[in-house]
Design brief:
This protein is α+β, with helices and mostly antiparallel strands and 136 residues long. The chain contains four helices and five strands. The protein starts with a strand and ends in a 5-residue tail after the last strand. The model has no long low-confidence stretch (mean pLDDT 91).
């Protein structure tokens, strides 16, 4: 496994940097262009959540083993206010901010797995992944 790519998220430029990092890694791993776009979009959504709700955080992109398979893993962490109701936050159209409510449910649809751990006042961790395609 290569080194994690770690992008500090403080503003919209960092969202772009995180998106590009995931995009490049996905291309290098041989994902289809459709999957590359979905991965990059999911990264944008969760990175934007960091700037909208927590102010700052970090996005890590790596290749790791998950459930016995190789996956491109994206992990977003912040020390923000946390999510009061994770199940509700995963519902389409639910948003506590001014967003469209596409963030977590949208990212969930774009990726193969998505997990959220959050505690009020202690921040949020979102981990999501997409299975690496078998070598062509």
């Amino acid at each position: 496994m290569g080194a994690d790519i770690v992008v500090g998220i403080h503003n919209s430029d960092d969202i772009v940097a995180a998106r590009k990092a995931g995009h490049q890694l996905a291309l290098d791993l041989g994902f289809t262009l459709t999957d590359v776009t979905m991965i990059a979009t999911a990264i944008s959504e969760i990175a934007r959540n960091i700037t909208s709700y927590a102010g700052r955080g970090v996005v890590r992109v790596a290749v790791a083993d998950r459930e016995g398979r190789r996956a491109l893993v994206v992990r977003a962490e912040d020390q923000g206010p946390g999510i009061a109701d994770v199940e509700r936050a995963m519902e389409d159209g639910y948003s506590t901010g001014r967003g469209l409510g596409l963030g977590l449910p949208g990212a969930h649809r774009l990726m193969d797995r998505l997990f959220v751990e959050s505690a009020l006042g202690q921040g949020t961790v979102v981990e999501m992944w997409k299975w690496v395609p078998p070598r062509a």
